[in-house]
Specification:
By secondary structure, the protein is of the alpha/beta class. The chain has helices at residues 3-14, 20-27, 47-68, 130-141, 160-174, 185-197, 201-208, 226-241, 262-268, 281-294, 301-310, 315-332, 338-344, 358-368, 373-376, 383-400, 404-410, 416-432, 434-447; strands at 31-36, 39-44, 74-79, 150-154, 180-184, 213-217, 245-250, 272-276.
Amino acid sequence: MTNEELWQTVLAQIQLVISPANFATWFKQTAIVSQKDGEMIVSVPNSFSREWLKNKYHKLITRIINDQDNRIKEIKYAVGSVVQTTPERKTNPTVPAIEQLDFQELKIDKETNLNPRYLFDNFVVGSFNELAHAAATAVAKTPGEIYNPLFVYGGVGLGKTHLLQAVGNEISKNFGKKNIKYLPAERFVSEIVGAIRNHQIESLKTKLQKTDILILDDVQFLAGKEKTQEEFFHLFNALYEKNKQIILSSDRPPKAIASLAERLRSRFEGGLIADISFPDLETRMAILKTKAVEKNIEFSDEIINYVASSIQKNIRELEGALNRLSTHQKIYGQPLTLEIAKELLGSLVAGPPKISSPKKIVQVVSDFYDLREKEVFSITRKKEVVKPRQIIMFLLREELKYSFPAIGRMFQGKDHTTAIHAFKKIKKGVEENEDLAEEISLIKRKLYGL
């Protein structure tokens, strides 16, 4: 595999696990420029990109490259221009040019930040997402009139970004004069911070208030950022009062977003809240077949069934698996066998990760409720700390089968009766309180990487 083919395989997989806007921002004009003695040099357009890739995406890049070539031991990033050239290849009519692979064609609209490949036409609908899809199509037909705001939530890789961008693209097609803006929440936070630092916050607010359709992805990242929440609250009100459409997504419902201002939570819950859950086997197979048609490639039903049966909880992982198979088949120019498919996807279809330690539970619960880990071990009786602490005790017992005395010792040597009380309280709460049951379910998904 040439350096260009290897890097395009890396890009193909990265674009499936980060937002289109982040992909366009950080991976445009990058390439492998050299590879020697186990060291790889990746060219980036500027020093800012170099630092961002090194600090934010290095582990992801390394894992993908090692899956393809385990001889690479070190990856470095160097600033330099990337000249797009077509490398010489041996003539082989059965192997298509790598430039033709569809994942290279990323044409993000610079004004809207929308990716045109996210459409309703290629969004597979099933029982797991039909409410969210129905609400999204209704919003696209009459933006600002019903379901405002529209709040879509669900786990990682279940199609939230696709659905949100499909709404934007549909509105753009039917209402060409609408000012549409799609923003990942992390980027929104960054723009607010930058505007405050550069004394340009009023200019940014004026610009955003001209938006007709505001789509904010992953709003859980606003948690704990008080200044950003304040600015977004005023922006939300300004747009809402003018009947401008607001569309939001999160990995959890508004009531489960810790450190979110109550007035924002109230605004989020004022429209329609729709969840996206896990797709069933038939839907997963339909998704794979749809994606295969998009990529203009065929796989046997045996392979489709194997992939759909092996990857059950994440559509993004389904697409990543299909992309790995299609890349291999296009490069080598021959149909895949089930045995080769299993070999190629070995690292993706391994059994679900197990909770290796109580530290994992403490970390996930603390992150979920936007607390520092040391806070849950403190002696405070604050409500916002006591509940997460009891949930940790509950999970230590239920998931790791820790004894109650052992749990008590972890928390300032508390008596085992404290752990018993916490376990019983949360267990009863899960049975009687739908909100708590949903929070525990979301936490467990994060514990097991679902």
